[in-house]
Model the fold of this input.
Amino acid sequence: MTADDTAAHDAIQRTRESLGRCVACETFLQRFYELFMASSEEVAELFRKTDFERQKRVLRDSLYVMLVAAGTTQGPAHDELERLARLHRDMAVTPDMFTLWLDALIEAAREHDTHFTDELENDWRLSLSGPIELMKSGG
Done:
C-alpha cells in the first residue's frame, strides 16, 4: 500500500467515524435535506413528492455504501453504487446537483459532528469524490 493509499484509507475511516457521529443525531438527515432543497429550485422540485422518512433511511444507507465503495473499482458496494448512479441518471439528476448535495452534506455534518474540523471537511470531500464522480457519470 502506497502512502497515498494509506492517506486515502485514513481519510475514509475518519469520514466513516464522522458519519457515525452525525447519524447518531436525530436531526442530521433532516437538516441535510433542508439545506439541499434550499440550494436550488431544481433540487426542491425533484424532492417535491418525496416520502422523507423513507428517503432519510435510503440516504443513510447510501452514504455508507459510498464510503465502502470509495477507493474501489469492484465488489458489492461498487456494484450497488453503479446501480444508484443509473437510478440517479434516470431521475435526471444533473452533475451540478451533486456539488450542491456534497456542500449540503458537509454543512449538515459541520453542524452535527462536534469533532468537525476543516481537515475533516477535506476528508469528507476526498472520501466522496470518487463515488460522486461515478454517480455523475451515471454508472
Summary: The helical segments are 3-23, 28-38, 41-46, 52-69, 76-90, 95-112, 118-137.
